[in-house]
Amino acid sequence: xxxxGGCKAFxxxxxxxxxxRGAALAGIPQSVASRRVSALExxxxxxxxxxxxxxxxxxxxxxxxxxxxRRLVRLADxxxxxxxxxxxxPLRIAVPETCTTRGLAELDSEARAHELFLxxxxxxxxxxxxxxxxxxxxxxxxxxxxxxxxxxxxxGVAGIAAMQPGAVYLESLRVGRSGRLPRRRIxxxxxxxxxxxxxxxxxxxxxxxxxxxxxxxxxxxTAATAEVLGSADLLVCSAAQAxxxxxxxxxxxxxxxxxxxxIEAVVAEDATRIRDRLRHAVARSLGAAVAGQEAR
Length: 296
Description:
Blueprint: H1 3-16, H2 19-26, H3 30-44, E1 49-50, E2 57-58, H4 60-87, E3 91-95, H5 101-113, E4 118-122, H6 125-133, E5 139-144, E6 151-159, E7 186-188, H7 195-208, E8 215-217, H8 221-229, E9 234-238, H9 239-245, E10 248-250, E11 257-265, H10 268-277, H11 279-286, E12 289-290
Parallel strand pairs: 3-4, 3-5, 7-8, 7-9
Antiparallel strand pairs: 1-2, 5-11, 6-9, 6-10, 6-11, 6-12
GO molecular function: DNA-binding transcription factor activity; transcription cis-regulatory region binding
Protein name: LysR family transcriptional regulator
Pfam families: HTH_1
């Protein structure tokens, strides 16, 4: 039987002293209240009300059972409230610091349509997995090699100085023998300070004869952008990021490098829900594409 429903009807009728008023308090038809009380009496093996009177008079057994029934109803109500809060508890997720406010807002909006309520924690790539491990967040968008990524974003270089059409070859940034030309630098932001991006660029730097300081990891995206805005330097970034920063973007001639992203979560079900329900919304927030599709 429905023990909670029966107790709710019993408590309402017992407190109102009437099946009619009790049913109204419980928000159910009188016939339903009568059936539920009868089922509860059958379940407990004793009558709860003396039906010889026009009023709903509690029997001695009914008076003894009423406090327990009240406790059960209160616990059931508390459980329903807890379930509501748990269902709508924000899922805290660590995201790249490159995500824009607009991109995250659009992701949050789409997530709400799937009854997922997100709370964002921007963090560099090296910290995001650690935040999941320590349970400071429930999930994280992690940086992975593009071949292993659910989302990918091709990287190139961007700047404010005029650029010729076509890819930029890093070899063209070498300083001549005279050394009179300014040494143009290539700045990596913290999001790309990961082996599958950084190490490949450093190998190309060395193979084409650039100076070590010409490929540098900046302390922050803001610092890297400031360097580029004030010089002919270049920023390693995605096309979407270059557009946001008002820079001209070109691919790199010597190699193809990409950011790759996946989801890591404390509970595997959270990662699956994000991948399945928000795959394209996450891609937009990252300025990336679902793996195997053309990046934006």
